[in-house]
Amino acid sequence: VQLQASGGGLVQAGDSLRLSCAASGRTRNDYAIGWFRQAPGKEREFVAVITWNQGVTFYSDSVKGRFAVSRDNAKNTVYLQMNSLKSEDTAVYYCAAKGPPLRDAFRPIDYVTWGQGTLVTVSS
Hints:
seven-stranded mixed β-sheet; mainly beta; 11 strands
């Protein structure tokens, strides 16, 4: 499977932005798609994950209640709706795919395929 992330940009604090992750190639319905972000000088951080088949979602505490992950199976696309953005949300956002189980979804090492990343900059 190949992943293409898009939708990043420059926004102001409090604004909203929606990222997309389009999957192509040999997709599997037992995959989960995770979103990670990496700010300059920091490690890659788990943001959210959703399973293709049942739409089960998990979020990091830092985005819970502000971000929402969803999927459109017909379009093979996963979305990350980001609301009430803060300056600390500034980072390159990546989507990635992993197989089961879901319990290690917060660990980047468990993901087998990564998209190229899209930059989100939130000005305060």
